[in-house]
Design a protein that fits this description.
Chain lengths: 201, 252, 187
Amino acid sequence: MISLYISGDSWMHRQPAGAKLLAVLALSITVLAAQSLIWLLLLLVGAAGAYNSLGPKGRQRLFASRFLLPLILGLGFAQGFIVGWEAALRATLKIFVMIMTADLVTATTPTQAILNCVERLITPLCRYIGRDPRKISLAVALMIRFIPVLVSQWQAQREAWFARSNRKPSLRLLTPFVAQALSRTDQIAESLQARSPTSRH
Amino acid sequence: MVPREGLEPSRHHWHRILSPARLPVPPPRRAEKHLSIPAMKLSRIYLARDQTSVFRDLSLSLDAHRIGLIGANGSGKSSLLRVIKGLITPDSGEVYRSDSVGIVFQNPEHQLLFPTVMEELCFGLIEQGIPKPEAEKTARSLLSRYHQEVLADKAVHELSDGQKQLLCIFSVLVDGAKVILMDEPCASLDHKSTRQVMDIIRPLPQQVIMATHHLELLEGFDRVIWLEKGKIWTDGEPRKVIAEYRSAMETI
Amino acid sequence: MLDNSAMTSTRDLVRIALFAALIAVLGLIPKFDLPFTAGVPITAQTMGVMLAGLFLGARNGFLAIVLFLFVVALGAPVLSGGRGGLGVFFGPTVGFLIGWAAGAWAVGEIYARMKRFQSERIFINALIASLLGGIIPIYVFGIPGLSLIASMTLEKAAMVSLIFVPGDVIKALLAAWLLSKMPEKVR
């Protein structure tokens, strides 16, 4: 499964997932309240540096985020007329810094680490309401497992469409797609149930 | 099993596999006229996918009425059928195809796009611009020609596996196909459904090109092509090619 | 013997995971261009919210969206356009994403109530549910979210966001239509 994690051994990689998540939250709150342009610019440069330290893939990621530019610059531009350029620049910088620092956490934290962290966090809550926290990992695994299955189903149905029509498939193709996807549910639930050692919640 | 007199041993053998509990029945001799269609042709096809070559300089003339396509998985059978139909465009080379080629895939679940039988049958015609009432008439008359009127007003999910595959074949016939390609049409069917499907396919006047692992289904075919890694390994008389293929499979 | 309640909860889990995967895949499908939308591309994925509520009901639909968003947060690039990761949740669209979860729940609830009144008119019920539940909550969460992250006033954020409502109306129509075309057992 393609993920946005970049493998490596940087300083950020070595920090525990929970700490990083907290840090991003704390940083975002600070950033939202920040007033100083210099401070925001420094953070931006710092974030860019962190991307750079991840190697070529990190630099690529930084470059790829240029697709966000139109949206954010557009927002900033729209603001500029009303609240003045300095405020608009400040707002734009804030968005960039927040997105980049959060994305850096994604880039330096493997999926499993975040999953474990989340599971640990909610275990006490789950015990309270009587549900199994491991269901989350199972749900995530199932969803990721199903994605390529559904993709190849879509491609097969798209092919079946082209076999009988010269036009591009319309939204009508969504009907058999969703119908077939949902009808898999029962078979899969049965095989899942068959593999659990005892029947429990 | 009581062997009927006058039957050749090999045909007896093939039929025993298809219907173990019944006496072997010879297939109807093809007394109906074949549709006369210009033979399709592939000329010097090159196709590469994911940086691997699928076909290199493949040329093929598809002139027989019943052509079988055999070969291991990955040999290119499915890609070949898709090139012939036009779902895949080769990187270079020429394809001379009839204007109405239909294709039936292995898994009816992926191929049937609509919830009711009528919608599925009429889809192709409606896409060709034919008004719905006329399309429905054509569809119903085709179903009655094959004594399958009972399917006409059903929902697709009510059909058995064999009936679903039949529906795929009927859809292609309703579209007016003169050539029917089949990519392992019976692979996901049991013996009874396979029989049902083959009984419909066998007497069809259209040209049929079938890729399959079930060598028994190619009984009575005019020509069998054995494809290996995108190249024609052997091509010719069915019994010969199939025997060669069988013995090659045994020595692996 | 299969424990009935365990079976149902397994089935629910599978349905939720499958629907979440469905929404991910809807993000991979290229945008459909409809002639009457004057060239505004419809992303199939945003319809997923309405579909979740209609097909799975309020609770499971909500959970399906939450699962989807969770996996996005984990780093899967399954948001339309190949986006994903935590960055998305700290950007201007975070409010809308939260709105998706609320919307799925709302669509499910409204549809269930409409069904209790008149179960025959599937398309109408689904349309009303999708229009009310699939649009209002999205903007109720989305606009303040945008206002906060992008340092905009609420009015400005509203102005910028509400342009997309006509597109959402079309999606509601499509979602309702899709449900009405489903074979009985799936519904």
